[in-house]
Amino acid sequence: MMKDKRFFFRNKPSGYFGSILIGIGFAAGWTPCTGPILVSVIALAATKPSAAILYMFAYVLGFAVPFFIMSFFIGKLNWIKRYNSVIVKVGGFLMIVTGILLFFDLMTKIVTFFTGLFGGFTGF
């Protein structure tokens, strides 16, 4: 399953047109990941309009800050290349464990445990 399909262009489009094409491709790849989260934030904002700007601000910060921080350290992350196969295997294991927890409805017990431990989120 570790396959991908890439397009290679002889003459890479540059300028405004190339930027638009790259943006379209990036959006097509990220929409399934970010769309449901953004819809959830908008729905949450619709239930409490007075806090809508804070919800959106938190979403934007949570989305943009990791990219911004990563831009400073991208040259120092050679260890990712070295341990790529280990990272993929650990990530896959965590996904399997999460799937098992969800299947047996154990995730709610974990959330309840941590809510009791750290306190619940009361909102803005």
UniProtKB/TrEMBL annotation:
Cell wall biogenesis/degradation recorded as keyword: no
Residue ranges of the TM segments: 20-46, 52-74, 86-104
Residue ranges of every copy of the Urease accessory protein UreH-like transmembrane domain listed in the record: 21-101
Keyword vocabulary terms for this entry: Membrane, Transmembrane, Transmembrane helix
Signal peptide stretch: none
UniProt entry tagged with the keyword Metal-binding: no
PANTHER family: CYTOCHROME C-TYPE BIOGENESIS PROTEIN HI_1454-RELATED (PTHR31272:SF4)
The protein's name in its UniProt record: Urease accessory protein UreH-like transmembrane domain-containing protein
